Prior knowledge:
Blueprint: H1 6-14, E1 19-21, H2 23-36, E2 41-46, H3 55-69, E3 73-78, H4 100-114, E4 123-127, H5 129-132, H6 137-144, H7 149-152, H8 156-163, H9 170-186, E5 190-194, H10 198-210, E6 217-221, H11 247-255, H12 262-269, H13 274-285, H14 291-306, H15 309-324, E7 334-337, E8 346-348, H16 349-355, H17 362-370, E9 374-376, E10 379-380, E11 387-389, H18 390-393, E12 397-400, E13 404-410
Parallel strand pairs: 2-3, 2-5, 3-4, 5-6, 7-13
Antiparallel strand pairs: 1-6, 8-11, 9-10, 9-12, 12-13
Helix pairs in contact: 9-10, 11-14, 11-15, 12-14, 14-15, 16-17
The chain binds one RNA strand through helix 11, helix 14, helix 15 and helix 17.
Amino acid sequence: MIExxxxxxxxxILKGVEDVLLPDELKTLLSNSIKNxxxxxxxxxxxxxxxxxxxxxxxxxxxLRQFQDLGHKAILIIGDYTARIGDPxxxxxxxxxxxxxxxxxxxxxxxxxxxxxxxxxxxxxxKNSTWLEPxxxxxxxxxxxxxxxxxxxxxxxxxxxxxxxxxxxxxxFLYPLMQAFDSISIKADxxxxxxxxxxxxxxxxxxxxxxxxKPQIAITMPILVGLDGVQKMSKSLGNYxxxxxxxxxxxxxxxxxxxxxxxxxxxxxxxxxKNEIYEMQNDMKNGSLNPSVAKRKLAxxxxxxxxxxxxxxxxxxxxxxxxxxxxxxxxxxxxxxNKKNYPSGKIKATTLLTESNLCSSxxxxxxxxxxxxxxxxxxxxxxxxxxxxxxxxxSKIIQKGRRFFLKLVVK
RNA sequence: GGAGGGGUGCCCGAGUGGCCAAAGGGAGCAGACUGUAAAUCUGCCGGUUCACGCCUACAUAGGUUCAAAUCCUAUCCCCUCCA
Length: 411
């Protein structure tokens, strides 16, 4: 079951990672696992604080999936107990705590999305309330006695808050310890996390040592840049691709990323071998590979990962149809016009655009027409004041720019 | 508790009485180009109007002025320093 070739394993494991603590230990760990044919416990903890995930979150999931592919055991920890505190990482204020119901609800949607990446049949899912809830206070004391305040304050978030006289609750101090305790409970060999998790991952090592376990290897993954190519992918910045978006949308959004962040995406979001990615990079550099071809491949892989091969193919075809052949997509949303609302039997083109939400205002609609961006049944409209006869436009297709289509239905 | 700085359009940010619907950048939209929804270039980018204009807008509420984002007063919020 386990990939026998150590170099091959390393090749996949190290692809795209930000940092490994410690690389030498990782090597021996892997070769022992191969020798004894014993899969490693790969830990990934998720706090179900946000219900929706985007590609940025899948970086670490993809890495975990890669471990699964290599024959290791993925253990996904739902931080239902830790979520009650909230990870203080990157926070300058105390997180509002979530109700257990909300956490449960989040966890469900979170999981269903995470399993688009992970192989569900090979994933062990556990809630950390399983062991954190029944923990005795004496045990908590035992854990806390092994760490000092100074050690905790090494952490930047805490240090900043402390020196700025912002409150840090003792509870928050406990967070990294709880996460560390998770590692003990499942006997983690390797824990994955984002770069910001570095401190927490290290705590796991320390505590494992204290408990006489072999300390875990910590592997951190870099932050994924968003569609703008500059800032990190995040929902609030609007530069994200949601895991639940439809295939066409995902495909198109991937095609809209800058050529120069493509390789990062290949490294972090696909499971292609390192050398294949390297080759593509080279070929693009020397001109033998057109970047658009590579990007199509990327888009297609990402859609396939989240859906399936067919969806990826369809999305690719759809993209060709619209942007290469400049034709219409296969499926077009309908927009229903209610005759009753237009007793004259006519509707202004601008009104239609705003009513259907293609444009945000009449001025916007006028601008669009003015700039030559409106087509009705493939004919460019250039008259701002154009009035359309309801009978005539039934089942016709209006197009805004290159990407937005609506099929009119007059009822 | 004291001292100071600040709140501007979707975001960042300039503007300190009229030339301000408000520089510049980003995002967004459109056009050109392109085997890319890449890059690049061009235009647009509060609402309404064919247009002149009008309306709404620079934290909130009042006020001074022919005229305020800009001055005054009060209120709310944010930040920095001191205690």
